[in-house]
Target: Ras-related protein Rab7
Amino acid sequence: MSLQKRTLLKVIVLGDSGVGKTSLMNQYVHMKFSQQYKATIGADFVTKELQIDERNVTLQIWDTAGQERFQSLGVAFYRGADCCVLVYDVNVMKSFDNLDNWHEEFLKQANPTDPKTFPFILLGNKIDLDGGNSRVVSETKAKDWCALKENIPYFETSAKEDINVGEAFHCIAKTALANEREQDIYFQGIPDVVTQTEQKGGCAC
Ligand code: GDP
Ligand code: MG
Model:
């Protein structure tokens, strides 16, 4: 039996309440979508194991309620983040306008060594809504915002129809891996398939 290296990547998902943060995570990790809106209380994480460039990776994806005040999330929420995913709803202008605040606050709270190179990813969610007729933020507008912010990668997604969700999280994992912290964990044995497990966690703060 050999020791296999597994890299833990912490990903933080931020954005206004109701944009679909929890739904995107559920679609990615559980392949499930629910119409029901259940506000996330405080902060919570789910994990998914995958292989990126032949490396075993555990994505630890932290979710939060959008209305939570940043400060009340506590330092534990931000500590050691490898990537920050910003989510807005393409049908709600305010959720797009608030991206600057989420971006700034993340940098303020997480205080990464180099804010200019810290990896962010932007997701414009709910592209399925009303067949695209209720959309108020164009793809160009979103891409312009990303270009102004050190070329943040951008994905248009639907958690409901499972559009681009896997692709977005794959990019998130790759981006986070490039920025990994020195916190690898080890397990025994060599997995012969890409495994997917779930683990519930919480924030002690
Ligand atoms: P959060 O507050 O950002 O975590 O948002 P939720 O994931 O709880 O989603 C808020 C509401 O939007 C729920 O009723 C979801 O079912 C719905 N929703 C989330 N993603 C999508 C999507 O891609 N398309 C549509 N049509 N509805 C969505
Ligand atoms: Mg939520």
Notes: Residues 95 and 183 are 34 Å apart (CA to CA). Confidence is low (pLDDT under 50) at residues 182-205.
